[in-house]
Amino acid sequence: MNTELVEEVSGNGRHEVLVSRTLVDALSEERLVHPNAKISLRWPQEVKRLMEFGLIVVSYSEFEVRSDRHRSGGRHKEVFEKQMLEALDEGAVVCFVHHNEAVPGAFQDYSGIGYRDEEAARECLSSQAGFRWLLRSKIQIGRRDTIILQSDVKRGEFNSFLKKWGASRNYFKTFEDGKFDDLICAPPECGKGYATGFSINFHRGLIVYLPLQINQSQADDFTDSVLSLIDSLLTYKAKRIQELPDWAKEPLFEKERLLHARRASLLAGLEKLEAEAAPYEQAKSLLVASEHSLEIAVPAFISARLGIPTERDEKFAEDFWLLDKERKKFAICEVKSVVKGFKKGAIYDVYNHREKNGLAEDFPALLFVSFNLQAGSWAKKDTSVQAGDYRIAVSNNVLIVRVEDLVRLWEGIAEGTLLVQDVIKQLTTLTGWLECAGGKLVHHG
Length: 445
Prior knowledge:
The chain is of the alpha/beta class and 445 residues long. It has 14 helices and 20 strands. It has helices spanning 3-10, 21-24, 77-89, 118-127, 131-136, 159-165, 219-240, 254-288, 291-306, 345-356, 378-381, 387-395, 403-415, 420-429, and strands at residues 15-20, 37-42, 55-59, 64-67, 70-73, 93-98, 139-148, 152-153, 168-174, 182-186, 194-195, 197-202, 205-211, 310-312, 319-323, 329-337, 365-370, 399-402, 432-437, 440-444.
């Protein structure tokens, strides 16, 4: 057993472990001896509060009651689920072991509930202790006719346990946006998104699903399997949950108090720096945005950072307008993104949209463009508009403004080297390409 790590994490204390009688049947507590754990074998309904235990091991189908062709949950199932939330909030690990569990049947990934037969899924929800948490995490459970004897082990803490007792007819699959927070073991012949063992982060605790083949005909092997499972889970918990309780985060040592005060001061300073840096991060995000996200971001940036009101166009999603103080339109704008080099067709799009809006040819028209989106550095992204391109813009009475120029316009205004009214004048009177470099405006046309 890997007792060293568990002992270190628990500070020589003994972990309180609950193992459901559903799993161990007539096995006596005297046989289950662990150096770092006090193991209680009880029915969950006999426990006053589950939060008394740091590790809780139950059957996946705990509380399931079968009658004729129907299944239902025992009276204590909902009490268990409520108390389970409280225990997880205290940092507990709840482990559901599975071997040959009933399942709702065929998967249906985009049905919301994940199964073709919604009635069967709801029956599992009402009868099985382990089903609810899968549904919440967008994870499906399936069942094979033949047992899955081997799994690819992803977490070494469970290697010995899974090698000897990790077998089940059940497997799990994610659907829609579901995910395994930590993959423990997976069927070797299946691809990504399948598991036989995994964990879900929940509040401050963990919900773990593991395969377990119980050999009740051999008492010693049965005992070893339960002890190995508990030892693996305690080691896993020690590695995964190392957060101090709130009361233990308060300083205890004199030097720690000084460091704590200094840390608080540094964090306050860091928060101030992060607040000051946030606009620059937002500006940089504009440089890597594309398509619809860029079409939304550019007018929002101009309104928020340059202080120029904007209005999205109803006809063309990539268009928007610059507005004066009376909210009258004084410039038509278009946003384009290109993976590689600049495309002349974007200039003609602005021209055409101005025409379709019934505007005069000398009505200010701006093309905000982001190109070279495949570039691997700022230097490669920040390339000039070629003379042939900005001359076409001149002949069509269009002004090109790269997103690089737009964010530098904002920088100049923020630093006080540029005035908003001067920027507006340039945007509405020039054609060709307006470059912003070194805090200065450079006109090409």
